[in-house]
Each structure stands twice: as structure tokens, then as C-alpha cells.
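Consider a protein example.
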Amino acid sequence: MGAAIGLSVSNLFPLFGFGRLYFGAEFMQSLPAVLKTLSGLQTVVSLPLLFSSALGCGSGSASGNSIQ
């Protein structure tokens, strides 16, 4: 369970390089094709979502429309 959560987090934050640090090439090669596909999909989808959430976090205070 811990390896699955760690792999998922490393896929969501690929810019930090956790995947290469904690999961070697032999680990990734031993995964079934379905999990490799899911890992790739997580990586591709995570970058636009993280970018969008970063824009959303800063928009309230910058525009003066902060909720009180």
C-alpha cells in the first residue's frame, strides 16, 4: 500500500523527481501495463491541474475579491 501511494504522489509531482529517487527502473519495468498506463495518465493530467490550482489560489487576494 505504501509503494502505491508513493508512486501516485511521485506521479502527481513529477517536477520534484521523487519517482527517480525512490523507484528505480526495475520497479517501473515490473509493473503491469495497466499500471504503467495509469501512471503516465496521472503524470500528464497532473501538470495542468497543478497549474490551474496555483492560479486559483492566488486569484482571490490579488483581485480584491477575497471572501471574509
In short: The mean pLDDT is 79.
